[in-house]
């Protein structure tokens, strides 16, 4: 098994057939087919089901592709770090961002990295905290923002900021930024909430249980975009950090009010793996990520956030 074979495997999986893969790899089609055949012979399994419509991965093929992508990513990163542009810091750094903060941070981070470290290429992976933590532990990303996870020997964390959750609804919902709303008041309204075990859902359910409140959950979703769309469609109110809908509030599409009695807070932490070295390019990008977040809080671009890091 060598890198050429793994790259052929991943490229065929991504393009769907050998012909397109040979174009992407800039080698003849029989060479691609031979690389796949050598892999299958070495492993003693079938990696693709061949059909008139293309190449479909088998279960074994899907497993190998997952590992092959990690290997190839690591190789690309090593090349970039070993041979950067003369006199510069170079490499590929993959950053995991939460959906609620991705729009605010991604462009600012890429801009900052390009200005200060042009030899570094940033990859942004967006996902909920549970997924980001698994990707971080598996080596698929280099650093991530998480919601104050339970201690684990696989990652080290640093608290960055704390933000309150807000009730969010249409402009005619009566919600006002300067008038807090209680969870008991929200319990009488139709609610659209994240699906369990999402961190916000756990906070809301726990607070409701302490007050013996029965929430009227009319819809659940594991996608922030769907949660927002359902509110915009008039299906109910929701509970989110205000940063997730700051642009909609500014445009007058949605209104929001701080949640009180109880005040629900979430802490965002910076996470790094403990099972591998934090390289210089990663440290540089982490520094700029923290600077970007601090600047967003200082300029009031991150509503309801309080900076915790020194």
TrEMBL record:
Query: Which InterPro entries does this one have?
Result: LysR_HTH_N, LysR_subst-bd, WH-like_DNA-bd_sf, WH_DNA-bd_sf
Indicate the segments forming the HTH lysR-type domain, all copies. 1-58
Q: Which Pfam families match?
A: HTH_1, LysR_substrate
Could you name the domain of life of the organism this protein comes from?
Bacteria
Record's PROSITE patterns? HTH_LYSR
> Where does the sequence pass through the membrane?
none
Q: Report keywords, A-Z.
A: Activator, DNA-binding, Transcription, Transcription regulation
UniProt record similarity statement: Belongs to the LysR transcriptional regulatory family.
Protein name, please? LysR substrate-binding domain-containing protein
Its lineage reads:
Bacteria, Pseudomonadati, Pseudomonadota, Betaproteobacteria, Burkholderiales
